[in-house]
Amino acid sequence: MPTAILTGPPVAGSSLETDLRTLGFDVRTVSEPAGATELLAEVPAQERVALVDPRFVGHLHALRLALTDPRFPAAAVPGALTVQPEARAALDRAAGRIPVGAGTAHLTDVLTDTLTEALDRADVGLHHVEPGSLVATIALTPAQREEAREAVAAVDDEAVRLRTAVKSRDGFFTTFFISPYSRYLARWCARRGLTPNQVTTASLLTALIAAGCAATGTRGGFIAAGVLLLLSFVLDCTDGQLARYSLQYSTLGAWLDATFDRAKEYAYYAGLALGAARGGDDVWALALGAMILQTCRHVVDFAFNEASDFEGGAGNAGPAVALSDRLDRVGWTVWARRMIVLPIGERWAMIAVLTALTTPRIVFYVLLVGCALAACYTTAGRVLRSRARRARRTDRAARALADLADYGPLVELLTGGGRGRGRTGSFLAPVMAFLSSAVLLVWVISQPDPASWLTVGVAACSALLAAAAVSRPLKGALDWLVPPFFRVGEYLTVLVLAARSDAHGALPAAFGLVAAVAYHHYDTVYRIRGGTGAPPRWLVRATGGHEGRILVVTILAALLPATGFTIALTALAVVLALLVLAESIRFWVAAHKHGAPAVHDEGEPA
Protein backbone atom coordinates (compact mmCIF):
# COMPACT_ATOMS: atom_id res chain seq x y z
CA MET A 1 0.00 0.00 0.00
CA PRO A 2 1.43 3.43 -0.90
CA THR A 3 2.13 5.87 1.90
CA ALA A 4 0.91 9.45 2.20
CA ILE A 5 2.66 11.73 4.68
CA LEU A 6 0.74 14.72 5.99
CA THR A 7 3.43 17.32 6.59
CA GLY A 8 1.76 18.75 9.69
CA PRO A 9 -1.18 18.26 12.02
CA PRO A 10 -4.62 17.88 10.36
CA VAL A 11 -6.72 21.02 9.97
CA ALA A 12 -10.02 21.04 11.83
CA GLY A 13 -12.97 20.22 9.58
CA SER A 14 -10.78 18.87 6.78
CA SER A 15 -11.63 15.59 5.02
CA LEU A 16 -8.11 15.26 3.64
CA GLU A 17 -7.20 12.13 5.61
CA THR A 18 -10.41 10.44 4.51
CA ASP A 19 -9.79 11.41 0.90
CA LEU A 20 -6.27 9.99 0.97
CA ARG A 21 -7.51 6.71 2.43
CA THR A 22 -10.21 6.60 -0.24
CA LEU A 23 -7.42 6.78 -2.81
CA GLY A 24 -5.74 3.77 -1.19
CA PHE A 25 -2.99 5.48 0.83
CA ASP A 26 -1.74 4.56 4.26
CA VAL A 27 -1.82 8.00 5.94
CA ARG A 28 0.89 9.07 8.40
CA THR A 29 1.01 12.42 10.15
CA VAL A 30 3.88 14.44 11.64
CA SER A 31 3.61 17.26 14.11
CA GLU A 32 5.65 19.69 12.03
CA PRO A 33 6.89 19.81 8.41
CA ALA A 34 10.52 19.17 9.31
CA GLY A 35 9.55 15.77 10.71
CA ALA A 36 8.23 14.67 7.32
CA THR A 37 11.76 14.20 5.96
CA GLU A 38 12.58 11.82 8.83
CA LEU A 39 9.38 9.84 8.27
CA LEU A 40 10.16 9.71 4.56
CA ALA A 41 13.27 7.65 5.29
CA GLU A 42 11.09 4.96 6.91
CA VAL A 43 9.03 4.36 3.75
CA PRO A 44 10.51 1.49 1.66
CA ALA A 45 12.23 2.72 -1.48
CA GLN A 46 10.18 0.36 -3.70
CA GLU A 47 6.88 1.98 -2.69
CA ARG A 48 5.07 5.03 -4.02
CA VAL A 49 5.11 7.85 -1.47
CA ALA A 50 3.15 11.08 -1.33
CA LEU A 51 3.66 14.23 0.69
CA VAL A 52 0.56 16.34 1.26
CA ASP A 53 0.22 19.70 2.98
CA PRO A 54 -2.56 19.42 5.61
CA ARG A 55 -3.81 22.86 4.49
CA PHE A 56 -4.59 21.46 1.04
CA VAL A 57 -8.10 22.23 -0.19
CA GLY A 58 -9.35 20.78 -3.43
CA HIS A 59 -11.39 18.19 -5.23
CA LEU A 60 -10.86 14.52 -4.59
CA HIS A 61 -10.28 14.01 -8.31
CA ALA A 62 -7.54 16.65 -8.30
CA LEU A 63 -5.76 14.59 -5.65
CA ARG A 64 -6.41 11.43 -7.64
CA LEU A 65 -4.81 12.95 -10.75
CA ALA A 66 -1.80 14.14 -8.79
CA LEU A 67 -1.18 11.10 -6.60
CA THR A 68 -2.35 7.94 -8.39
CA ASP A 69 -1.51 8.29 -12.08
CA PRO A 70 1.02 5.50 -12.86
CA ARG A 71 2.37 7.06 -16.05
CA PHE A 72 4.76 9.53 -14.41
CA PRO A 73 7.72 8.96 -12.07
CA ALA A 74 6.66 12.04 -10.11
CA ALA A 75 3.64 14.34 -10.18
CA ALA A 76 2.42 17.38 -8.26
CA VAL A 77 -0.30 19.94 -7.72
CA PRO A 78 -0.05 22.83 -5.26
CA GLY A 79 0.14 21.21 -1.84
CA ALA A 80 0.56 17.59 -2.96
CA LEU A 81 3.49 15.65 -4.40
CA THR A 82 3.93 11.98 -5.25
CA VAL A 83 7.00 10.02 -6.28
CA GLN A 84 7.31 6.51 -7.65
CA PRO A 85 10.30 4.24 -6.92
CA GLU A 86 12.29 5.38 -9.97
CA ALA A 87 12.36 8.95 -8.61
CA ARG A 88 12.71 8.13 -4.92
CA ALA A 89 16.46 8.69 -4.85
CA ALA A 90 16.01 12.23 -6.19
CA LEU A 91 13.32 12.94 -3.58
CA ASP A 92 15.50 11.61 -0.75
CA ARG A 93 18.40 13.79 -1.91
CA ALA A 94 16.16 16.85 -2.14
CA ALA A 95 14.77 16.23 1.34
CA GLY A 96 18.25 15.72 2.77
CA ARG A 97 19.43 19.07 1.40
CA ILE A 98 16.73 21.13 3.13
CA PRO A 99 18.50 22.99 5.97
CA VAL A 100 17.07 22.94 9.47
CA GLY A 101 17.28 25.53 12.23
CA ALA A 102 16.69 29.26 12.48
CA GLY A 103 15.77 31.04 9.26
CA THR A 104 14.62 27.96 7.36
CA ALA A 105 10.90 28.13 8.12
CA HIS A 106 10.17 29.49 4.64
CA LEU A 107 11.50 26.19 3.20
CA THR A 108 9.68 23.77 5.48
CA ASP A 109 6.44 25.66 6.01
CA VAL A 110 5.37 24.81 2.45
CA LEU A 111 7.46 21.65 2.23
CA THR A 112 5.63 20.12 -0.73
CA ASP A 113 6.33 23.14 -2.93
CA THR A 114 9.99 23.22 -1.86
CA LEU A 115 10.44 19.57 -2.78
CA THR A 116 8.53 20.03 -6.03
CA GLU A 117 10.91 22.80 -7.09
CA ALA A 118 13.89 20.58 -6.19
CA LEU A 119 12.57 17.69 -8.29
CA ASP A 120 11.97 20.08 -11.17
CA ARG A 121 15.64 21.04 -11.06
CA ALA A 122 16.65 17.37 -10.80
CA ASP A 123 14.89 16.65 -14.11
CA VAL A 124 13.26 13.37 -13.04
CA GLY A 125 10.25 13.75 -15.32
CA LEU A 126 8.04 15.55 -12.82
CA HIS A 127 4.53 16.02 -14.20
CA HIS A 128 2.70 19.18 -13.15
CA VAL A 129 -0.99 18.31 -13.15
CA GLU A 130 -3.23 20.94 -14.73
CA PRO A 131 -6.41 20.82 -12.63
CA GLY A 132 -8.42 22.84 -15.14
CA SER A 133 -11.77 23.64 -13.55
CA LEU A 134 -10.90 21.54 -10.51
CA VAL A 135 -9.58 23.16 -7.34
CA ALA A 136 -6.16 22.30 -5.86
CA THR A 137 -4.61 24.90 -3.57
CA ILE A 138 -3.05 25.56 -0.18
CA ALA A 139 -5.25 27.71 2.08
CA LEU A 140 -3.03 29.60 4.53
CA THR A 141 -5.77 31.58 6.29
CA PRO A 142 -9.36 30.83 7.34
CA ALA A 143 -10.62 33.27 4.72
CA GLN A 144 -8.66 31.51 1.97
CA ARG A 145 -9.95 28.16 3.21
CA GLU A 146 -13.55 29.31 3.08
CA GLU A 147 -13.07 30.76 -0.40
CA ALA A 148 -11.45 27.53 -1.63
CA ARG A 149 -14.25 25.40 -0.17
CA GLU A 150 -16.84 27.52 -1.97
CA ALA A 151 -14.90 27.02 -5.20
CA VAL A 152 -14.87 23.25 -4.60
CA ALA A 153 -18.61 23.22 -4.03
CA ALA A 154 -19.21 25.16 -7.24
CA VAL A 155 -17.63 22.48 -9.47
CA ASP A 156 -18.87 18.89 -9.76
CA ASP A 157 -15.67 16.89 -9.90
CA GLU A 158 -17.53 13.71 -10.91
CA ALA A 159 -18.85 15.49 -14.00
CA VAL A 160 -15.29 16.62 -14.79
CA ARG A 161 -14.03 13.09 -14.25
CA LEU A 162 -16.62 11.68 -16.65
CA ARG A 163 -15.90 14.33 -19.27
CA THR A 164 -12.14 13.79 -19.17
CA ALA A 165 -12.59 10.03 -19.43
CA VAL A 166 -13.28 10.62 -23.13
CA LYS A 167 -10.37 11.09 -25.53
CA SER A 168 -9.53 14.71 -26.16
CA ARG A 169 -9.29 13.92 -29.89
CA ASP A 170 -11.57 11.32 -31.42
CA GLY A 171 -13.54 10.53 -34.55
CA PHE A 172 -17.00 11.91 -35.39
CA PHE A 173 -18.86 8.62 -34.92
CA THR A 174 -17.14 7.87 -31.62
CA THR A 175 -17.63 11.40 -30.28
CA PHE A 176 -21.33 11.75 -31.08
CA PHE A 177 -22.65 8.17 -31.17
CA ILE A 178 -20.57 6.20 -28.65
CA SER A 179 -18.91 8.37 -25.99
CA PRO A 180 -22.12 10.08 -24.76
CA TYR A 181 -23.12 6.80 -23.08
CA SER A 182 -19.99 4.63 -23.03
CA ARG A 183 -18.45 6.92 -20.40
CA TYR A 184 -21.27 5.93 -18.02
CA LEU A 185 -20.61 2.28 -18.83
CA ALA A 186 -16.96 2.94 -17.90
CA ARG A 187 -18.05 4.39 -14.55
CA TRP A 188 -20.33 1.39 -13.98
CA CYS A 189 -17.36 -0.92 -14.60
CA ALA A 190 -15.12 1.10 -12.27
CA ARG A 191 -17.63 0.93 -9.41
CA ARG A 192 -17.78 -2.85 -9.75
CA GLY A 193 -14.04 -3.27 -9.69
CA LEU A 194 -13.63 -4.25 -13.34
CA THR A 195 -10.29 -3.44 -14.95
CA PRO A 196 -9.64 -2.02 -18.43
CA ASN A 197 -7.92 -5.28 -19.42
CA GLN A 198 -11.06 -7.25 -18.55
CA VAL A 199 -13.17 -4.92 -20.70
CA THR A 200 -10.61 -5.16 -23.52
CA THR A 201 -10.85 -8.96 -23.37
CA ALA A 202 -14.67 -8.76 -23.41
CA SER A 203 -14.44 -6.59 -26.53
CA LEU A 204 -12.20 -9.17 -28.22
CA LEU A 205 -14.53 -12.05 -27.35
CA THR A 206 -17.53 -10.10 -28.64
CA ALA A 207 -15.76 -9.40 -31.94
CA LEU A 208 -14.75 -13.06 -32.31
CA ILE A 209 -18.37 -14.09 -31.77
CA ALA A 210 -19.35 -11.51 -34.40
CA ALA A 211 -16.84 -13.08 -36.79
CA GLY A 212 -18.35 -16.49 -36.05
CA CYS A 213 -21.82 -15.17 -36.82
CA ALA A 214 -20.57 -13.72 -40.11
CA ALA A 215 -18.99 -17.08 -40.95
CA THR A 216 -22.43 -18.74 -40.93
CA GLY A 217 -23.18 -17.08 -44.26
CA THR A 218 -26.85 -16.51 -43.39
CA ARG A 219 -28.71 -13.20 -43.36
CA GLY A 220 -29.50 -13.65 -39.69
CA GLY A 221 -25.85 -14.33 -38.99
CA PHE A 222 -24.79 -11.22 -40.89
CA ILE A 223 -27.28 -9.06 -38.96
CA ALA A 224 -26.09 -10.50 -35.63
CA ALA A 225 -22.48 -9.98 -36.73
CA GLY A 226 -23.08 -6.29 -37.48
CA VAL A 227 -24.78 -5.72 -34.11
CA LEU A 228 -22.05 -7.55 -32.19
CA LEU A 229 -19.30 -5.69 -34.04
CA LEU A 230 -20.82 -2.38 -32.92
CA LEU A 231 -21.12 -3.72 -29.37
CA SER A 232 -17.47 -4.74 -29.52
CA PHE A 233 -16.57 -1.21 -30.53
CA VAL A 234 -18.59 0.24 -27.63
CA LEU A 235 -16.56 -1.96 -25.27
CA ASP A 236 -13.38 -0.95 -27.10
CA CYS A 237 -14.14 2.69 -26.31
CA THR A 238 -15.15 1.80 -22.77
CA ASP A 239 -11.82 0.20 -21.86
CA GLY A 240 -9.88 3.38 -22.63
CA GLN A 241 -12.45 5.54 -20.87
CA LEU A 242 -12.29 3.25 -17.86
CA ALA A 243 -8.50 3.59 -17.84
CA ARG A 244 -8.80 7.39 -17.88
CA TYR A 245 -11.68 7.46 -15.38
CA SER A 246 -9.89 5.30 -12.81
CA LEU A 247 -6.30 6.07 -13.90
CA GLN A 248 -5.61 2.37 -14.46
CA TYR A 249 -2.91 2.74 -17.08
CA SER A 250 -0.44 -0.06 -17.72
CA THR A 251 2.08 -1.20 -20.30
CA LEU A 252 0.30 -4.54 -20.64
CA GLY A 253 -3.06 -2.82 -21.04
CA ALA A 254 -1.81 -0.55 -23.82
CA TRP A 255 -0.40 -3.55 -25.68
CA LEU A 256 -3.60 -5.59 -25.27
CA ASP A 257 -5.76 -2.69 -26.44
CA ALA A 258 -3.66 -2.08 -29.54
CA THR A 259 -3.14 -5.70 -30.59
CA PHE A 260 -6.71 -6.77 -29.86
CA ASP A 261 -8.01 -3.98 -32.12
CA ARG A 262 -6.09 -5.46 -35.02
CA ALA A 263 -7.02 -9.04 -34.10
CA LYS A 264 -10.71 -8.14 -33.91
CA GLU A 265 -10.84 -6.41 -37.27
CA TYR A 266 -8.83 -8.99 -39.18
CA ALA A 267 -10.67 -11.92 -37.59
CA TYR A 268 -13.90 -10.29 -38.73
CA TYR A 269 -12.54 -10.06 -42.28
CA ALA A 270 -11.84 -13.80 -42.13
CA GLY A 271 -15.36 -14.43 -40.81
CA LEU A 272 -16.87 -12.50 -43.70
CA ALA A 273 -14.76 -14.47 -46.19
CA LEU A 274 -15.84 -17.77 -44.65
CA GLY A 275 -19.48 -16.68 -44.72
CA ALA A 276 -19.21 -15.68 -48.36
CA ALA A 277 -17.62 -19.04 -49.21
CA ARG A 278 -20.63 -20.81 -47.69
CA GLY A 279 -22.76 -18.93 -50.18
CA GLY A 280 -20.51 -19.87 -53.09
CA ASP A 281 -18.64 -16.55 -53.36
CA ASP A 282 -14.84 -16.60 -52.93
CA VAL A 283 -13.76 -13.22 -51.52
CA TRP A 284 -10.55 -14.30 -49.77
CA ALA A 285 -8.48 -12.14 -52.13
CA LEU A 286 -10.60 -9.12 -51.19
CA ALA A 287 -10.32 -9.95 -47.47
CA LEU A 288 -6.54 -10.26 -47.73
CA GLY A 289 -6.39 -7.07 -49.79
CA ALA A 290 -8.39 -5.21 -47.14
CA MET A 291 -6.06 -6.44 -44.39
CA ILE A 292 -3.00 -5.46 -46.42
CA LEU A 293 -4.37 -1.99 -47.17
CA GLN A 294 -5.32 -1.33 -43.57
CA THR A 295 -1.98 -2.58 -42.25
CA CYS A 296 -0.03 -0.49 -44.75
CA ARG A 297 -2.07 2.57 -43.75
CA HIS A 298 -1.01 2.00 -40.17
CA VAL A 299 2.62 1.53 -41.21
CA VAL A 300 2.48 4.93 -42.97
CA ASP A 301 1.06 6.47 -39.78
CA PHE A 302 3.63 4.84 -37.52
CA ALA A 303 6.64 5.56 -39.74
CA PHE A 304 5.70 9.20 -40.26
CA ASN A 305 5.13 9.75 -36.53
CA GLU A 306 8.36 8.03 -35.52
CA ALA A 307 10.24 10.07 -38.13
CA SER A 308 8.89 13.35 -36.71
CA ASP A 309 11.75 13.71 -34.24
CA PHE A 310 14.10 16.42 -35.44
CA GLU A 311 17.25 18.00 -34.14
CA GLY A 312 16.48 21.38 -32.59
CA GLY A 313 12.71 20.98 -33.03
CA ALA A 314 10.47 20.37 -36.02
CA GLY A 315 11.23 23.64 -37.78
CA ASN A 316 8.98 25.08 -40.45
CA ALA A 317 6.67 22.51 -42.05
CA GLY A 318 5.60 24.80 -44.87
CA PRO A 319 2.25 25.75 -46.39
CA ALA A 320 0.65 22.33 -45.77
CA VAL A 321 0.71 22.86 -42.00
CA ALA A 322 -0.37 26.50 -42.37
CA LEU A 323 -3.39 25.40 -44.42
CA SER A 324 -4.20 22.69 -41.88
CA ASP A 325 -4.07 25.22 -39.05
CA ARG A 326 -6.42 27.55 -40.94
CA LEU A 327 -8.87 24.72 -41.56
CA ASP A 328 -8.80 23.78 -37.88
CA ARG A 329 -10.29 27.19 -37.12
CA VAL A 330 -13.39 26.25 -39.14
CA GLY A 331 -15.35 23.78 -37.02
CA TRP A 332 -17.00 21.64 -39.68
CA THR A 333 -13.74 21.09 -41.56
CA VAL A 334 -12.19 19.47 -38.47
CA TRP A 335 -14.88 16.78 -38.39
CA ALA A 336 -14.84 16.37 -42.17
CA ARG A 337 -11.09 15.78 -42.18
CA ARG A 338 -11.35 13.30 -39.33
CA MET A 339 -14.05 11.37 -41.19
CA ILE A 340 -12.12 11.37 -44.48
CA VAL A 341 -9.32 9.31 -42.96
CA LEU A 342 -11.90 6.65 -42.03
CA PRO A 343 -10.80 6.09 -38.42
CA ILE A 344 -11.76 2.98 -36.53
CA GLY A 345 -15.19 4.23 -35.42
CA GLU A 346 -16.38 5.23 -38.87
CA ARG A 347 -14.78 2.17 -40.42
CA TRP A 348 -16.36 -0.35 -38.05
CA ALA A 349 -19.75 1.36 -38.24
CA MET A 350 -19.61 1.17 -42.03
CA ILE A 351 -18.57 -2.50 -41.94
CA ALA A 352 -21.31 -3.37 -39.42
CA VAL A 353 -24.11 -1.67 -41.38
CA LEU A 354 -22.99 -3.07 -44.72
CA THR A 355 -22.65 -6.56 -43.25
CA ALA A 356 -26.23 -6.47 -41.99
CA LEU A 357 -27.72 -5.02 -45.19
CA THR A 358 -25.57 -6.30 -48.08
CA THR A 359 -23.09 -9.06 -48.93
CA PRO A 360 -19.45 -9.66 -47.90
CA ARG A 361 -18.28 -8.81 -51.42
CA ILE A 362 -19.93 -5.39 -51.25
CA VAL A 363 -18.51 -4.86 -47.75
CA PHE A 364 -14.98 -5.43 -49.03
CA TYR A 365 -15.46 -3.36 -52.19
CA VAL A 366 -16.63 -0.34 -50.18
CA LEU A 367 -13.95 -0.90 -47.54
CA LEU A 368 -11.16 -1.10 -50.12
CA VAL A 369 -12.32 2.04 -51.94
CA GLY A 370 -12.81 4.01 -48.73
CA CYS A 371 -9.48 2.99 -47.21
CA ALA A 372 -7.65 3.62 -50.49
CA LEU A 373 -9.02 7.17 -50.70
CA ALA A 374 -8.15 7.76 -47.03
CA ALA A 375 -4.63 6.42 -47.61
CA CYS A 376 -4.11 8.72 -50.60
CA TYR A 377 -5.35 11.73 -48.63
CA THR A 378 -3.18 11.17 -45.56
CA THR A 379 -0.06 10.08 -47.43
CA ALA A 380 -0.21 13.03 -49.84
CA GLY A 381 -0.49 15.48 -46.95
CA ARG A 382 2.45 13.92 -45.16
CA VAL A 383 4.60 13.97 -48.27
CA LEU A 384 3.88 17.70 -48.67
CA ARG A 385 4.75 18.35 -45.04
CA SER A 386 7.97 16.36 -45.30
CA ARG A 387 9.12 18.06 -48.50
CA ALA A 388 8.69 21.51 -46.93
CA ARG A 389 10.48 20.65 -43.70
CA ARG A 390 14.16 21.57 -43.49
CA ALA A 391 15.05 20.18 -40.06
CA ARG A 392 17.39 17.19 -39.71
CA ARG A 393 16.05 13.94 -38.28
CA THR A 394 17.61 12.65 -35.07
CA ASP A 395 19.61 9.43 -34.74
CA ARG A 396 16.78 7.98 -32.63
CA ALA A 397 14.25 8.59 -35.40
CA ALA A 398 16.58 7.09 -38.02
CA ARG A 399 17.05 4.03 -35.82
CA ALA A 400 13.30 3.66 -35.39
CA LEU A 401 12.77 3.78 -39.16
CA ALA A 402 15.48 1.16 -39.67
CA ASP A 403 13.76 -1.08 -37.11
CA LEU A 404 10.40 -0.57 -38.82
CA ALA A 405 12.03 -1.54 -42.15
CA ASP A 406 12.40 -5.07 -40.70
CA TYR A 407 15.29 -6.15 -42.91
CA GLY A 408 16.83 -9.54 -42.25
CA PRO A 409 20.20 -11.32 -42.41
CA LEU A 410 20.43 -11.18 -46.20
CA VAL A 411 20.26 -7.37 -46.27
CA GLU A 412 22.64 -7.27 -43.30
CA LEU A 413 25.10 -9.32 -45.30
CA LEU A 414 24.73 -7.14 -48.38
CA THR A 415 25.23 -3.92 -46.40
CA GLY A 416 28.14 -5.28 -44.38
CA GLY A 417 26.12 -5.17 -41.16
CA GLY A 418 26.16 -1.39 -40.90
CA ARG A 419 25.06 1.81 -42.53
CA GLY A 420 27.30 4.53 -43.83
CA ARG A 421 26.92 8.24 -43.60
CA GLY A 422 23.98 9.68 -45.50
CA ARG A 423 23.13 13.12 -46.81
CA THR A 424 19.95 14.70 -45.46
CA GLY A 425 17.47 15.32 -48.25
CA SER A 426 18.68 12.45 -50.43
CA PHE A 427 15.92 10.45 -52.14
CA LEU A 428 18.07 7.35 -52.52
CA ALA A 429 16.40 5.36 -49.75
CA PRO A 430 12.72 5.81 -50.74
CA VAL A 431 13.52 5.41 -54.44
CA MET A 432 15.42 2.16 -53.84
CA ALA A 433 12.68 0.89 -51.52
CA PHE A 434 10.04 1.71 -54.12
CA LEU A 435 11.99 -0.03 -56.87
CA SER A 436 12.59 -3.02 -54.60
CA SER A 437 8.86 -3.58 -54.29
CA ALA A 438 7.79 -2.32 -57.73
CA VAL A 439 10.18 -4.54 -59.70
CA LEU A 440 8.99 -7.63 -57.88
CA LEU A 441 5.29 -6.78 -58.05
CA VAL A 442 5.34 -5.85 -61.74
CA TRP A 443 7.04 -9.14 -62.47
CA VAL A 444 4.68 -11.43 -60.50
CA ILE A 445 1.60 -9.61 -61.80
CA SER A 446 2.66 -9.56 -65.45
CA GLN A 447 3.89 -13.15 -65.76
CA PRO A 448 1.46 -15.84 -66.94
CA ASP A 449 2.95 -18.19 -64.35
CA PRO A 450 4.88 -16.32 -61.62
CA ALA A 451 5.65 -19.57 -59.77
CA SER A 452 9.05 -19.99 -61.42
CA TRP A 453 12.75 -19.83 -60.65
CA LEU A 454 12.94 -16.58 -62.62
CA THR A 455 10.69 -15.08 -59.93
CA VAL A 456 13.18 -16.25 -57.32
CA GLY A 457 15.90 -14.39 -59.24
CA VAL A 458 13.77 -11.24 -59.35
CA ALA A 459 13.20 -11.58 -55.59
CA ALA A 460 16.98 -11.74 -55.12
CA CYS A 461 17.33 -8.53 -57.18
CA SER A 462 14.62 -6.99 -55.00
CA ALA A 463 16.72 -7.83 -51.93
CA LEU A 464 19.71 -6.05 -53.51
CA LEU A 465 17.62 -2.90 -54.02
CA ALA A 466 16.32 -3.19 -50.43
CA ALA A 467 19.90 -3.31 -49.19
CA ALA A 468 20.66 -0.13 -51.13
CA ALA A 469 17.64 1.54 -49.48
CA VAL A 470 18.88 0.93 -45.92
CA SER A 471 22.62 1.19 -46.59
CA ARG A 472 22.65 4.73 -45.13
CA PRO A 473 20.95 6.26 -42.08
CA LEU A 474 17.31 7.01 -42.85
CA LYS A 475 17.44 10.75 -42.25
CA GLY A 476 16.14 12.02 -45.58
CA ALA A 477 12.92 13.99 -45.84
CA LEU A 478 10.94 11.10 -47.32
CA ASP A 479 12.80 8.19 -45.74
CA TRP A 480 9.74 7.38 -43.61
CA LEU A 481 8.29 5.89 -46.84
CA VAL A 482 10.84 3.06 -46.75
CA PRO A 483 8.96 0.79 -44.29
CA PRO A 484 5.57 1.21 -46.08
CA PHE A 485 7.16 0.39 -49.45
CA PHE A 486 8.69 -2.78 -48.00
CA ARG A 487 5.34 -3.80 -46.45
CA VAL A 488 3.47 -3.29 -49.73
CA GLY A 489 6.02 -5.36 -51.64
CA GLU A 490 6.03 -8.25 -49.19
CA TYR A 491 2.30 -8.50 -48.52
CA LEU A 492 1.17 -8.08 -52.13
CA THR A 493 3.71 -10.61 -53.38
CA VAL A 494 2.23 -13.23 -51.07
CA LEU A 495 -1.31 -12.29 -52.21
CA VAL A 496 -0.50 -12.47 -55.92
CA LEU A 497 1.41 -15.76 -55.70
CA ALA A 498 -1.39 -17.35 -53.68
CA ALA A 499 -4.11 -16.02 -55.99
CA ARG A 500 -2.27 -17.10 -59.15
CA SER A 501 -1.55 -20.60 -57.82
CA ASP A 502 -5.20 -21.63 -58.35
CA ALA A 503 -4.82 -23.97 -55.39
CA HIS A 504 -7.75 -24.57 -53.08
CA GLY A 505 -7.00 -22.95 -49.72
CA ALA A 506 -3.97 -20.97 -50.91
CA LEU A 507 -5.56 -17.58 -50.24
CA PRO A 508 -6.77 -18.46 -46.71
CA ALA A 509 -3.25 -19.75 -45.99
CA ALA A 510 -1.79 -16.51 -47.37
CA PHE A 511 -4.23 -14.58 -45.16
CA GLY A 512 -2.85 -16.40 -42.12
CA LEU A 513 0.75 -15.80 -43.18
CA VAL A 514 0.26 -12.06 -43.74
CA ALA A 515 -1.64 -11.83 -40.43
CA ALA A 516 1.29 -13.42 -38.56
CA VAL A 517 3.84 -11.12 -40.23
CA ALA A 518 1.62 -8.07 -39.69
CA TYR A 519 1.42 -8.92 -35.99
CA HIS A 520 5.22 -8.90 -35.86
CA HIS A 521 5.27 -5.46 -37.49
CA TYR A 522 2.62 -4.08 -35.12
CA ASP A 523 4.53 -5.50 -32.16
CA THR A 524 7.66 -3.68 -33.35
CA VAL A 525 5.73 -0.41 -33.45
CA TYR A 526 4.26 -0.80 -29.96
CA ARG A 527 7.65 -1.62 -28.46
CA ILE A 528 9.20 1.46 -30.05
CA ARG A 529 6.27 3.62 -28.92
CA GLY A 530 6.65 2.31 -25.38
CA GLY A 531 10.28 3.38 -25.30
CA THR A 532 11.54 -0.20 -24.93
CA GLY A 533 13.15 -0.46 -28.37
CA ALA A 534 12.54 -2.84 -31.25
CA PRO A 535 12.27 -6.63 -30.85
CA PRO A 536 15.59 -8.41 -30.29
CA ARG A 537 17.71 -8.82 -33.38
CA TRP A 538 17.68 -12.61 -33.05
CA LEU A 539 13.90 -12.59 -33.54
CA VAL A 540 14.14 -10.42 -36.66
CA ARG A 541 16.81 -12.75 -38.07
CA ALA A 542 14.77 -15.83 -37.17
CA THR A 543 11.76 -14.48 -39.04
CA GLY A 544 14.00 -13.82 -42.05
CA GLY A 545 13.30 -10.12 -42.44
CA HIS A 546 11.01 -8.97 -45.24
CA GLU A 547 13.48 -9.90 -47.98
CA GLY A 548 14.10 -13.36 -46.51
CA ARG A 549 10.40 -14.15 -46.26
CA ILE A 550 9.83 -13.04 -49.86
CA LEU A 551 12.63 -15.33 -51.04
CA VAL A 552 11.24 -18.27 -49.07
CA VAL A 553 7.72 -17.78 -50.47
CA THR A 554 8.95 -17.47 -54.07
CA ILE A 555 11.15 -20.56 -53.67
CA LEU A 556 8.20 -22.53 -52.26
CA ALA A 557 6.02 -21.40 -55.17
CA ALA A 558 8.66 -22.48 -57.72
CA LEU A 559 9.52 -25.74 -55.99
CA LEU A 560 6.15 -27.17 -54.94
CA PRO A 561 2.95 -28.12 -56.76
CA ALA A 562 -0.18 -26.08 -56.02
CA THR A 563 -1.38 -28.28 -53.14
CA GLY A 564 2.09 -28.41 -51.61
CA PHE A 565 2.37 -24.63 -51.87
CA THR A 566 -0.82 -24.23 -49.81
CA ILE A 567 0.48 -26.62 -47.15
CA ALA A 568 3.84 -24.83 -47.08
CA LEU A 569 2.18 -21.41 -46.68
CA THR A 570 0.07 -22.78 -43.81
CA ALA A 571 3.10 -24.29 -42.09
CA LEU A 572 5.09 -21.08 -42.53
CA ALA A 573 2.21 -19.04 -41.10
CA VAL A 574 1.97 -21.32 -38.04
CA VAL A 575 5.72 -21.27 -37.37
CA LEU A 576 5.99 -17.48 -37.68
CA ALA A 577 2.87 -16.93 -35.57
CA LEU A 578 4.14 -19.16 -32.76
CA LEU A 579 7.59 -17.56 -32.87
CA VAL A 580 6.51 -13.92 -32.78
CA LEU A 581 3.59 -14.48 -30.38
CA ALA A 582 5.71 -16.39 -27.86
CA GLU A 583 8.40 -13.69 -27.78
CA SER A 584 5.86 -10.88 -27.77
CA ILE A 585 3.85 -12.31 -24.87
CA ARG A 586 7.03 -13.04 -22.91
CA PHE A 587 8.26 -9.49 -23.43
CA TRP A 588 5.06 -7.65 -22.55
CA VAL A 589 4.27 -9.75 -19.49
CA ALA A 590 7.83 -9.25 -18.23
CA ALA A 591 7.62 -5.50 -18.91
CA HIS A 592 4.39 -5.35 -16.93
CA LYS A 593 5.86 -7.29 -13.99
CA HIS A 594 8.99 -5.16 -13.90
CA GLY A 595 7.01 -1.94 -13.76
CA ALA A 596 7.78 -0.52 -17.19
CA PRO A 597 6.36 3.00 -17.59
CA ALA A 598 2.67 2.92 -18.45
CA VAL A 599 1.84 3.99 -21.99
CA HIS A 600 -1.34 5.82 -22.87
CA ASP A 601 -2.21 6.94 -26.35
CA GLU A 602 -4.37 10.03 -26.80
CA GLY A 603 -3.54 10.42 -30.46
CA GLU A 604 -5.54 10.06 -33.62
CA PRO A 605 -7.78 6.98 -33.58
CA ALA A 606 -6.43 4.15 -35.70
Q: How would you describe what is shown here?
A:
The longest helix is centred in the last third of the chain and has 32 residues, at 562-593. It contains 26 helices and eight strands. Residues 602-606 have low confidence and may be disordered. The protein has 606 residues and is mainly α. α11 runs antiparallel to α16 (344-357) and α18 packs parallel to α22 (482-500). It has helices at 16-22, 34-40, 60-67, 88-96, 105-108, 111-122, 142-154, 157-164, 172-191, 196-215, 219-246, 251-278, 284-306, 319-328, 331-340, 344-357, 360-388, 395-405, 409-414, 428-446, 453-469, 482-500, 506-529, 537-543, 545-559, 562-593; strands spanning 3-6, 26-29, 49-52, 56-58, 74-77, 80-83, 126-128, 136-138.
SSE diagram, text form:
Layout: E1 3-6, H1 16-22, E2 26-29, H2 34-40, E3 49-52, E4 56-58, H3 60-67, E5 74-77, E6 80-83, H4 88-96, H5 105-108, H6 111-122, E7 126-128, E8 136-138, H7 142-154, H8 157-164, H9 172-191, H10 196-215, H11 219-246, H12 251-278, H13 284-306, H14 319-328, H15 331-340, H16 344-357, H17 360-388, H18 395-405, H19 409-414, H20 428-446, H21 453-469, H22 482-500, H23 506-529, H24 537-543, H25 545-559, H26 562-593
Parallel strand pairs: 1-2, 1-3, 5-7
Antiparallel strand pairs: 3-6, 4-8, 5-6
Summarize the main sheet: 6 strands, mixed
Pick out the low-confidence regions.
Answer: 602-606
Oligomer: single chain
Instruction: State the helicity in percent bands.
Output: 55-70%
Please report which band the strand proportion falls in: under 5%, 5-15%, 15-25%, 25-35%, 35-45% or over 45%. under 5%
Structural class: mainly alpha
Task: Let me know the number of strands.
Answer: 8
